[in-house]
Amino acid sequence: MRVARVARARGVLDRVARASRCARARDASASARSSASTDARLERAPAASPASPRFRFEVLRASTRSNARAGMIHTPRGTIATPGYVAVGTNAAMKAVRGDALRRAGIDLMFANTYHLMLQPGAATVEAMGGIHAFMGRRGPVITDSGGFQVFSLGTPDRSANAKGKTKELKSRKATKHRRENLLIDVSEEGATFRSYRDGTKMTLTPESSVLSQKQIGADIIIPLDELPPYDIDRETLEESVHRSHRWMTRSLETHLKDVRQQAMYGVVHGGVDRELRRMSVEYLSALPFDGLAIGGSLGRDAAELGALLEFLMPLLPKHLPNHLLGIADMENIEHAVANGVDTFDSCYPTQVARHGTLFTRSRGRINFRRAEFRTSTEPACEECECTLCTKHTLGYLHHLDRANEPLAWSLASEHNLYHMGDKMRRVREGILNGEI
Ligand SMILES: [Zn+2]
């Protein structure tokens, strides 16, 4: 048995090496050629089969009205209905909300941040506690990122979305609140070296160490380390960055395939808003046996630019793999993303705005429960919602809790917005299955 497993693993690794050599050659030729001859000279890469034996994507219905599709991602820890919102539980916890709220809200997948878990309590500690599922008492699947987004956010504070002269981006790097000083020391071919914001310890994040940390954490879906260039860089630097991310992701995949366990790995498509680079990135990653593809890097300045990018990019992705849009989940972008064929997407936005007074509702749109008009409101936040807030409490009570700085206000509001997201996506899936979207 063991011999057969080792032989199989060697076979897959050989295949990665071959596919990777082939992809590198295409990568090099892609960067050398002119954009006009892109399609003619580029052979379409044969789509590689996913590596994880326990991970499977099933398309239930592909819309004929749009590029939307409804499907199921089967994982060893349960099924993820798509299109689906992925809730963000940075520190292996939903802020102010118990983990079981996700199941009740109909949200199948949770996103946790490797960077935060590496620093506290440490990936080895999570492993010693039985992995993230046992640690936090969660049965359903978990996806983790590489830690790269936060590490790159630690450096060059002038990358900030609001920095003078810099273009504001959809997915800004203000996500890391610890960027008071420049903690990113160096980025080299090996990886990124930075100081811990907690105690100043020098640490290096490499493609290999990121994968090993995610294996220790026990994520069901692993995201490989990539470089995260800002929107405002020249074409040449962006292209070099895409190539480096490709090399890092190949190393990540090689590390993953030596010990797959029951985990899956998604490649991350890069290239900013440059169409040729995005196309090249899809070609490169499609030749490798990733279990899915994420859409990362800079996604543009606004919804219009993201929309245009998705319209171009989504038809290029292999249809047999699930895809994930990293870090975008506001209402305007969700509808466009779904219509373009996005399967899953994550963002802390729904719970973050809930803690600051915003509720999403079906009949009234967004409301701010901090407004004086709700002080004596005896209405529920949302008639159609089945969350604790809407079934047990009034808006006036929520308004009071918030004014009194009671943490229950943040719990109730966050849980409600999670229910809203779960309900919205359930209706979107029904719409696709019924041929309405
Ligand atoms: Zn509710």
TrEMBL record:
<feature type="domain" description="tRNA-guanine(15) transglycosylase-like">
    <location>
        <begin position="67"/>
        <end position="436"/>
    </location>
</feature>
<dbReference type="GO" id="GO:0046872">
    <property type="term" value="F:metal ion binding"/>
</dbReference>
<protein>
    <recommendedName>
        <fullName>tRNA-guanine(15) transglycosylase-like domain-containing protein</fullName>
    </recommendedName>
</protein>
<feature type="region of interest" description="Disordered">
    <location>
        <begin position="24"/>
        <end position="49"/>
    </location>
</feature>
<keyword id="KW-0328">Glycosyltransferase</keyword>
<keyword id="KW-0808">Transferase</keyword>
<dbReference type="InterPro" id="IPR002616">
    <property type="entry name" value="tRNA_ribo_trans-like"/>
</dbReference>
<dbReference type="Pfam" id="PF01702">
    <property type="entry name" value="TGT"/>
</dbReference>
<feature type="compositionally biased region" description="Low complexity">
    <location>
        <begin position="28"/>
        <end position="49"/>
    </location>
</feature>
<dbReference type="GO" id="GO:0008479">
    <property type="term" value="F:tRNA-guanosine(34) queuine transglycosylase activity"/>
</dbReference>
<dbReference type="InterPro" id="IPR036511">
    <property type="entry name" value="TGT-like_sf"/>
</dbReference>
<keyword id="KW-0479">Metal-binding</keyword>
<keyword id="KW-0819">tRNA processing</keyword>
<dbReference type="GO" id="GO:0006400">
    <property type="term" value="P:tRNA modification"/>
</dbReference>
<dbReference type="InterPro" id="IPR004803">
    <property type="entry name" value="TGT"/>
</dbReference>
